[in-house]
Amino acid sequence: MLTVLGFVMIATFLVLIMTKKMSPMAALILIPALFCVLVGQGAHLGAYVLKGVGDLAPTAAMLMFAIIYFGVMIDVGLFDPVVRGILRFCKADPVRVVVGTALLAAIVSLDGDGSTTFMITVSALYPLYRRLKMSLVVMTGVAATANGVMNTVPWGGPTARAATALKLDAGDIFVPMVPALATGLVAVFLLAYVLGRRERKRLGLLTLDDAGTAAGRAVPAGEPVLAAATGGFGARVRTTVLRTAAPRTAKARPAAAGGGNGGAVSADPATVDAAPGTSAAAHGTDGPAPDTDDLQGLDPHRATLRPKLYWFNAALTVALLVLLVLQTLPIPVLFLLGAATALTVNFPRMTDQKARIAAHAENVLNVSGMVFAAAVFTGVLTGTGMVAHMARWLVDGIPDALGPHMGIVTGVLSIPLTYFMSNDGFYFGIVPILAEAGAAHGVGALEIARASLVGQALHMSSPLVPAVYVLVGMAKVEFGDHTRFTVKWAVLTSLVVLAAGLLYGII
């Protein structure tokens, strides 16, 4: 009976959140509470929840202060020079542009938030793709796949969920997986190179002349100007002439206005039309081509910038990541110290610190709230014995030949399951069952947790991931086109991560 009720509870949870009848947070709390009563253990609900909360508190603290830390680093301009350098690297070569897309998305993904990654990446590179007439689904596909691989950082979500669901330390899951994930990231760069070569073959090799060295050469009438090819992120750029472009005539379209929070682009796909601060020429629309153009994804004059503290912030971030990998201190403690240091040094005034915390409060509340809501789900699932009964049923159904290879089974299953269901449903509903089944065959929970990260390259293009709508909305790409283009490459990347994990003995 507990087996049936356990599967019904998970199915109810998945259906409700996938059909958007309930929010994940509400479903994580109310559905298990109801089923706890149905199995006749309602009197123990409080004990189950408190036990779960105690187990998950370190994970919630880690996510809370990691969001604050990286939010502050974006506010103070830590990533702005990185974007400027990538734009200079890209120039007008489609290969460089696509590889630069992967590089920028991977670097910005260190903040663990897909929406932020896509906002910055598309804001910086969208005008360049449009001006070169490159395929925008290449940009969205490469950015989503790179972000999927990098999303496995402990503060990014999947690793924290796996640690939460199996009551493990996030560092113990993530650090051994670094070689396999690094191999997956290399695969993304190789993919970007191949796609860039394809774009170069389709468009031809474009050459650029810097107007500043053109010895006074006048730009012929109708010859479009490629602003942003040599430009900076949030800075005025030198005029660059695209020699191979032909004159066009069409109606100009106004650029969208930037939003708040330091000038970040609006995340609402219904209102996002273009990167803020870019002209009609930069978007590939016609009209008079300006001599200079603004390319800005974050307001270059925002009050939160701290250029004099740039190297301090860079050193602090590098030190934090090194200590994280070395596991010198628990990850929650590292981010507690890092966030406090970043706030104190960059914003000595109390009012400024409060403003920065308030600016990121919504993300902090959503993420930490989800973790504590999950305490109800995992606490009831474990405390009532449902997960044990389901695991025994699952073990009985797995052929003996596959039992010792539950790590591989988990890795393969993670690819479709994390696409067709949310991370919450997979990690809180499925992974604990796989871990129990693996334990019966001598496969440790850590191996199952690591294997469960394999499918994240595909997951970031799932229709259940809100951030992907920010990506396709800002890039003006139809979601169906993005899906058709990206799925095959993301699946291949996930299989590379799985193969690397097997090769290195991690899984």
Automatic annotation (TrEMBL):
Region (Disordered): 248-294
Bilayer-spanning residue ranges: 58-79, 134-153, 173-195, 309-327, 333-351, 363-381, 401-419, 426-446, 458-477, 489-506
InterPro entries: Cit_transptr-like_dom, Citrate_transporter
Membrane topology: Multi-pass membrane protein
Subcellular location field: Membrane
Pfam family of the protein (one): CitMHS
Domain Citrate transporter-like intervals: 14-455
Domain of life: Bacteria
Alphabetic keyword roster: Membrane, Transmembrane, Transmembrane helix, Transport
Molecular function via GO: citrate transmembrane transporter activity
Protein name from the UniProt record: Citrate:proton symporter
Native source species: Streptomyces chrestomyceticus JCM 4735
